Amino acid sequence: LNVMVAAVMKAGRSLSRDFGEVENLQVSIKGPGDFVSAADKKAEKILIEELSKARPGYGFLAEESGISEGTDATHRWIIDPLDGTTNFLHGIPIFGVSLALEREGQIVAGVIFNPVMNELYVAERGGGAFMNDRRLRVAARNTLADAVIATGIPHLGRPRHDDFTRKLNRVMLEVAGVRRNGAAALDLAWVAAGRFDGYWEDAIHPWDMAAGILLVREAGGFVSDLSGGDKMFETGGICVGNEIIQRRLLATLAGR
Ligand code: LIP
């Protein structure tokens, strides 16, 4: 965890500096509605350099550079150097670095850092979840009518728009409020912190969710894919909350 925190904070400080001069950054388009900037690339380079120095041989799954096999087949870093790229490029201070460590296919540590809000989220399997050293618990609200639920809205070039609006309609009618913050890793961290009561999204990537899944679980929350299984990475779908909210949200999404 010390290695992870040091790497994430270094990458986060780099993002902070670039955020101050966001209008001068080089931006390229990966696909419709999907951007990458010099800031993402710089932060990813910092993470890969720091982590390779500290743990030579571990493999990587990184948003910008993809998969690289390590000599150590049991460990893999999962990296999103800048989650919330669109926010970042619009000067919206809701973005962060997300880093998880997988051991034999299981997420064993996760760190998420929002450098603007100076919030550092840390979780280790079996060791609890923390934000700036404060222990986290998911919210205790147990009816959807009291719940604030976060989601992600598909953008240009993303599949399943109709499916999303159907699901949103069902949820809207049941809950106290719906939010769209634009950074999946932070959405998950905010569920762990009890700010959001639940969160669902479809068509996101392992790097958006790996660290956040562990944070939610270690904060006492429940996590599944959109069918109630554990194929979040494979399907890109995720639904989280405390035991009751997670179950009710899943049922509402499915129209039950
Ligand atoms: C983004 C997410 C956002 C989600 C987008 C995208 P990026 O990640 O965190 O909330 O709705 O589809 O995946 O591209 O900024 O790392």
Automatic annotation (TrEMBL):
This is Inositol-1-monophosphatase. InterPro entries: IMPase (IPR033942), Inositol_monoP_metal-BS (IPR020583), Inositol_monophosphatase-like (IPR000760), Inositol_monophosphatase_CS (IPR020550), Inositol_monophosphatase_SuhB (IPR022337). Keywords: Hydrolase, Magnesium, Metal-binding. Its EC number is 3.1.3.25. It comes from Kaistia dalseonensis. The keyword Signal does not apply. One of its GO terms (molecular function) is inositol monophosphate phosphatase activity. It comes from the Bacteria. Its cofactor is Mg(2+). It holds the Pfam family Inositol_P. Belongs to the inositol monophosphatase superfamily. It is an enzyme of class 3 (hydrolase). It catalyses: a myo-inositol phosphate + H2O = myo-inositol + phosphate. Gene3D superfamilies: 3.40.190.80, Fructose-1,6-Bisphosphatase, subunit A, domain 1 (3.30.540.10).
